[in-house]
Amino acid sequence: METTHRVFVGDSRTLETIDDDSVELVVTSPPYPMIEMWDDLFTELDPDIGVALDDGDGRRAFDAMHAQLDRVWDELERVLVDGGIACINVGDATRSVDGSFRVFPNHARVLEAFETRGFDPLPDVLWRKPTNSAAKFMGSGTLPPNAYVTLEHEFILLFRNGGDSREFEPGADRRYEAAYFWEERNRWFSDVWTDVQGELQDLPETDASDDRRERSAAYPFEIPYRLISMYSTYGDTVFDPFWGTGTTTLAAMCAGRHSLGNELEPAFLDDFEDRVENVPSFSRSVARTRLERHREFVERQQHQADGTACSYDAVHYETPVVTKMERELLLREVTGIETIENGYRAVHEPVVPGEN
């Protein structure tokens, strides 16, 4: 099996390179309005935003920033197939503007924007971001009533494009082979993720001194990998309009899906070339870690008198599974990468137990 992964440089408010109804899944993390590191970017897109910030008018700046994101959401409505899923990772912002501290609810504004465009909101996910700071207090610290809660979580907002779910032919191999294990389903489809850090490690950075990763607001590899596994099948195309360091593309490669990306800053694409060479070994580790963890789960269940029964045998692996839908599950790994116009082609092979 082969997948293609193309990245285009340009403005995601006008996605001329992406055809209508050409992607099945969107996984992205946009710049967050009212986070200071993004002020310059938003001001470049609309100089009135800088004026509003200078005037101390936080609400006007907030609305104007989201107006720029709205143009991207218009494009997503166009390129996403009917029934396709959009996963938007976004955090709220806390900020003092004109001497007054408050929260700017980005997640609520994005939710409203998608619903206005005809998307159906689905149950969302909260994931907790670890903090390295021992001084978490904002405001008056230990004195009531003027201390403030520290935001340590972000939202993964989930939307379906239109009212109907996607349909597949009966027994579609690309869907059944892309199944996830029962215990993964229970963990992944929880509405709070506290185990993201360290579950499936990201590729190492090639230049730790480069600040582009911070400016990209990249999320951990585990987040797009889970979402791609949850909401797409083999053969689907995943799109990230705020590509950044390419984490969504890496996850799509490891998950055996096609991908498209759009990025405003060309330097990110140069950085990505150094990461791609490690994808085969990394994807092998990701897939085999999933299989090994499943076997550990089975072993635990066999020693619990009241544990869930693993009543079916997997077709491709010598391991029992809990449900009939898992029987055809077939993990894939990248065995080769080649450069193509605007991106890469990845060759995938099924994971064979016992091979290194």
From TrEMBL:
Q: Which reaction does it catalyse?
A: a 2'-deoxycytidine in DNA + S-adenosyl-L-methionine = an N(4)-methyl-2'-deoxycytidine in DNA + S-adenosyl-L-homocysteine + H(+)
Annotated GO molecular function terms are:
DNA binding; N-methyltransferase activity; site-specific DNA-methyltransferase (cytosine-N4-specific) activity
Please indicate which superkingdom the organism of origin belongs to.
Answer: Archaea
Which GO biological process annotations does it have?
DNA restriction-modification system; methylation
EC id: 2.1.1.113
Q: Give the DNA methylase N-4/N-6 domain ranges.
A: 23-272
Positions the record marks as coiled coil are: none
Which Pfam families does the entry mention? Answer: N6_N4_Mtase (PF01555)
The cross-references to Gene3D superfamilies, in alphabetical order and at most eight, read: Vaccinia Virus protein VP39
Q: What keywords appear on the UniProt entry?
A: DNA-binding, Methyltransferase, Restriction system, S-adenosyl-L-methionine, Transferase
Report the sequence similarity comment from the record: Belongs to the N(4)/N(6)-methyltransferase family. N(4) subfamily.
- What protein name does the entry list? Type II methyltransferase
What does the organism's lineage look like at the top? Answer: Archaea, Methanobacteriati, Methanobacteriota, Stenosarchaea group, Halobacteria
